[in-house]
Specification:
The complex is a heterodimer. Chain A contains 13 helices and 2 strands. Chain A is mainly α. Chain A has a single domain, classed as MetI-like (MetI-like fold, Orthogonal Bundle), CATH 1.10.3720.10. In chain B, about 45% of the residues lie in helices and about 15% in strands. In chain B, α2 (about 60-75) links the parallel β1 (about 50-55) and β2 (about 80-85). The chains are: A mainly alpha, B alpha+beta. The interface of A and B includes residues 149, 244, 246 and 248 of A.
Chain lengths: ~300, ~450
């Protein structure tokens, strides 16, 4: 008995020693900055000068800042549009790439490849594709005779079109990874189930809706949650493709936070807004997890 | 067996701890972009006797400034200069964060429009004492306006290098095609004169050409609005100390409406996303752009163009938007007093002796010596030397550069792009100033 306890204790110590290096780094580089961030959000600070404690003033300012709400609205809009799109499109891709066809491998690679590009490369491709007068899309439309120089769509001048470009780029660029998750889940579905269903006379549609999709549910939940989090944090592609324009119509909350911190040197205010975003995401995730639990 | 396992786990732990330590002492590698700009300037090795200079000059400008540094280093100074060029878009963010964490350079660049903020937040230090010690009399080297632009509360914070203004470029071939002469262009005395020429040129140009090459967003339409506002008699944006908005709302609105009329009258083709490139392609008769594009335009094959000062459109003084590059000494605890003195010596020499070299970039040199030389008079940049007299520099507000200016641009963009009507847009313009008071 005693020796077992001793052994257990040893195991714990060994485990601790293994965990310790990571834990120290995690504390220094993640936990401490998180706490420090709360402190910064209660101060007025321009990075260089002294921090001046102002209590909740930054948060009060945030509630009264019309721009904050505009950016939050933009971000919610982006999340509401792209998250379902990505969840569905990558599922369709996965189903397509999971069929026993000869070019299966090609499909998988083709769907996945955009995801390996960095956000800047992906954004530049989008920008060139939709550029007026010389871009691919307008070039094709013009050569088909659908538009002329005078009437061609100005993708970056109208808010709806600018959103369309950002959303298309995001879906194209992001779908690869969720597709892989779906694919691996699809491969976990036992072929015997499908055989049995076929023997019972189920058609392809019934098999999809009655067997495949219900079995994919946990993966769908996971993908949805990851997408919502990622969408709320959108920054790179919008900054690079539209710069938030026209006007402020496509500017995301994270862009606004970045500008407050690094263009305007308002570290406290930008920290306060970061925590607001953190709370919003945390609530979304909690709702999501509740729904999933209820479902199971 | 057990022994072995223990040994192994100890070794592994040891290796991890060692590698962690190793990571921190290992020198960071320099991360250089294709154009020679550096993403992690603090990692560049600078010899003990060298002074580090963080430059924001890229492309053609970079080459001209490189020559100034080479010429200076060739005189075998006590502390040679190590030039490190940063990505322009990141420059101020990196400079401010580097100085805040004690990794900043010995010498830096600042726009006059950013200088007040850098001085106010303690990023750069005054150099009045060093100038006295070196026996430099600035009034012999620069105009009083230039000296005033770098003086804050009686202290000199920088050495002016140049003035760069928003000027007018025109395509000689297209104007000839439309029957407009260079004298007509240089003789513009009012908005009506300019509009008459625009109308005439529009008649003569094919559909996919543009009378004026101008974007619907960003700095350039803002600078035109800025010039027009002051020509109309607009007041400064803020009071002394930048505690109050003193914008003349009526004039700001009138200037907005006039600039907008250029778009609405079809003088500007929709969707020009790079106005300099569009002008370079020879498809636009006019282009309002900074003096710094002169070099690029001159290097464009088959582009037959000339440049002149920003036209007089309203009132009787052809005010123009201008900014100025200045050389600064960022706060740096690692630098000795002797080195600071050497650094000041360099920035004075770079501006005064390097002025004529710098003029090659198309910017108007601040140094009188360069400004009045025959060599400069032979350059294309000399065509716009008068802008020195008509320059309207940025207001002295700590929140101007990243705050007020970028908010103003966003507010105006909304109007150019038909997102907001004139009432909303002019409210946004006022708010852009009020939100960024000190």
């Amino acid at each position: 008995m005693n020796s077992m306890k001793k052994r257990q204790r040893r195991a714990t110590i060994t485990a601790l020693i293994f965990i310790l290096p990571f834990f120290i780094l995690f504390t220094i580089f993640t936990i401490y900055p998180v706490i420090q961030g709360v402190w910064v959000s209660l101060n007025k600070w321009n990075l260089m000068g002294r921090q001046k404690f102002i209590g909740l003033e930054n948060y009060v300012k945030m509630f009264n800042d019309a721009k904050f709400w505009t950016m939050l609205k933009n971000t919610c809009f982006f999340t509401l549009v792209t998250s379902p799109l990505i969840v569905v499109v990558s599922l369709v891709f996965a189903l397509l790439a999971n069929r026993p066809v000869r070019y299966k491998k090609f499909l998988r690679i083709a769907y996945y490849v955009p995801g390996v590009l960095s956000v800047s490369v992906g954004s530049f491709i989008a920008q060139y594709t939709f550029a007026p007068y010389r871009g691919l899309v307008n070039g094709i439309l013009t050569s088909l005779g659908l538009v002329t120089t005078a009437t061609e769509p100005q993708w970056f001048q109208r808010p709806e079109l600018a959103w369309a470009v950002v959303v298309i780029m995001t879906v194209w660029w992001t779908c690869g990874f969720p597709m892989l998750m779906y694919l691996s889940a699809l491969q976990d579905i036992s072929p015997e189930l499908m055989e049995a269903a076929s023997v019972d006379g189920a058609n392809a549609r019934q098999k999809l809706f009655r067997i495949t999709l219900p079995l994919l549910k946990p993966t769908i939940y996971l993908v949805t949650m990851l997408q919502i989090i990622a969408s709320f944090k959108v920054f790179g592609q919008i900054r690079l493709i539209t710069g938030g324009g026209p006007g402020n119509s496509t500017k995301s909350l994270v862009m606004y936070i970045y500008e407050a911190a690094f263009d305007k040197n308002k570290m406290g205010y930008s920290a306060a807004m970061s925590y607001a975003l953190f709370i919003i995401i945390a609530i979304c995730v909690m709702i999501q997890m509740k729904l999933q639990k209820g479902d199971e | 067996m057990k022994m072995r396992k223990k040994l192994l786990s100890m070794l592994l732990t040891g290796a991890m701890v060692l590698s962690m330590g190793g990571m921190t002492v290992m020198a960071e590698e320099v991360d250089m972009n294709e154009d020679g700009t550096i993403n992690n300037p603090e990692a560049v090795e600078v010899a003990d006797d060298e002074l580090s200079f963080w430059s924001l000059f890229t492309g053609g400008d970079g080459e001209w400034f490189g020559k100034i540094v080479d010429d200076y280093n060739a005189t075998s100074p006590t502390n040679p200069i190590k030039r490190i060029t940063l990505v322009w878009a990141d420059y101020y963010t990196k400079l401010q964060t580097a100085v805040a964490t004690g990794n900043g350079p010995d010498i830096g660049v600042s726009h006059v429009s950013k200088l007040f903020e850098l001085a106010d937040t303690g990023v750069v230090e005054p150099i009045t004492d060093q100038l006295d010690e070196l026996g430099v009399d600035l009034s012999e080297c620069f105009s009083q306006e230039s000296i005033d632009s770098v003086t804050i509360d009686g202290d000199i914070y920088a050495i002016p290098l140049d003035t760069h203004s928003e000027v007018m470029y025109y395509n000689l071939d297209l104007l000839e095609q439309a029957g407009v002469t260079e004298d007509d262009v240089k003789g513009i005395q009012s908005a009506e004169d300019f509009e008459a020429i625009c109308a005439k040129v529009k008649e003569a140009l094919p559909e996919d050409n543009s009378v004026i090459s101008l974007q619907t967003n960003g700095d350039d339409p803002f600078r035109i609005w800025y010039a027009v506002y002051f020509q109309m008699g607009g007041t400064d944006f803020v009071n002394d100390g930048a505690t109050e908005c003193t914008l003349d709302v009526e004039k700001a609105r009138a200037a907005m409406e006039w600039v907008k009329s250029l778009y609405d009258n079809g003088y500007i083709l929709e969707g020009i996303d790079d106005q300099t490139a569009f002008f370079q392609s020879g498809k636009a008769a006019f282009c309002f752009a900074g003096t710094w594009v002169t070099g690029n335009l001159e290097a464009t094959d088959g582009l037959n163009f000339n440049n002149t000062t920003f036209p007089l459109l309203f009132g009787d003084t052809p005010y123009c938007w201008s900014d100025s590059h200045t050389l600064t000494i960022p706060v740096n605890a690692d630098r000795t007093d002797e080195e600071t003195l050497e650094a000041v010596k360099f920035i004075v020499s770079a501006s005064v002796d390097g002025g004529i070299t710098w003029a090659g970039s198309g910017q108007i040199p601040s140094a009188l010596k360069a400004n009045e030389s025959d060599e400069y008079k032979a350059m294309k940049g000399y065509n716009v030397v008068d802008e020195l007299k008509y320059s309207k520099y940025a207001p002295l507000a700590s929140n101007y550069y990243g705050g007020m200016k970028s908010d103003l641009i966003t507010a105006l963009d909304g109007y150019w792009q038909n997102m907001d009507d004139i009432d909303t847009a002019s409210d946004n313009v006022t708010a852009a100033i009020e939100d960024n008071l000190d």
